[in-house]
Write a structure and sequence with these properties.
This protein is mainly α. The chain has helices spanning 2-26, 30-57, 60-77. The protein has one domain (2-77). It is elongated.
């Protein structure tokens, strides 16, 4: 259960910060772009490690959680003014 929570939190944060990073970069907001870039890299490492392990083990619940939490992160990033 703790791995599921870690996956959801890291994937949500990854997708959220990745989308914001693109928006900040397009607006030439360098400091915010650098911050979100760092968050992207850290959360990508965590969510990818857990996600790949889940695929290799055939854990469909974890795979679904990976996809859904990523989509939620993308959606939430558009609710934030950038």
């Amino acid at each position: 259960m703790s791995q599921l929570l870690a996956l959801c939190a890291s994937q949500l944060a990854f997708s959220f910060s990745r989308t914001l990073n693109v928006r900040y970069t397009a607006k030439n907001m360098v400091p915010m772009s650098l911050v979100t870039s760092a968050v992207v890299k850290i959360t990508w490492l965590i969510s990818s490690a857990i996600g790949i392990d889940s695929v290799l083990k055939g854990d469909l619940l974890m795979c679904a959680a990976y996809v859904v939490s990523g989509a939620i992160g993308d959606y939430l990033s558009f609710k934030v003014k950038a």
